[in-house]
Amino acid sequence: MHELTIATSLVELACDHAARNGGGRVARVDIRLGVLCGIARSLYFCWGPASRGTLCQGANLHIEEVPLTVKCAHCDAVKTPRALHNFRCPDCGRPTPKVVTGREMQLAAIELADHRERLLA
Ligand SMILES: [Zn+2]
Q: Which of 36, 33, 101, 25 minimizes the C-alpha distance to 62?
């Protein structure tokens, strides 16, 4: 996926929300981004250009990075691998292809300039 496209769709979602809630400006947008997406830095970079001329212009983008966790079937537990590209259970060493967190991209909250409103995380 192209980061500018992602930033633009986040801007559109936030602007749509602002327009439906009084049409005020967006002050802040919070997203949750899995570390495996690896786009946090470029998303920050694209946010300015993507939001220019919209209700999101000047809004702060906050990215909460979600760590990688995997489900180990052998231990029947959720584990945190030692490295991002090492999908093995840190305890029993077996492959753990089932990613539990680390791939998500969610809009967590939108704060409007005139009042604060939280979306479901
Ligand atoms: Zn295990």
A: 33
Q: Determine the distance separating the centroid of ligand 1 and the alpha carbon of 44, expressed in angstroms.
A: 36
Beta pairing partners, 29: 61, 110
- CA–centroid distance, residue 94 to ligand 1 (Å): 6
Chain segment 4-25, per-residue pLDDT in tens? 999 999 999 999 999 999 888 9
pTM: 0.81
Q: Has domain 3-67+102-117 been given CATH number 3.30.1490.20? A: no
Q: 7: closest CA among 36, 31, 38?
A: 31
pLDDT at site 1: 57
Q: Per-domain residue ranges for the chain?
A: 3-67+102-117
Cα(73) to ligand 1 centroid in Å equals 7
Residue 95 CA to ligand 1 centre (angstroms): 8
Cβ 42 vs Cβ 5: under 8 Å:
no
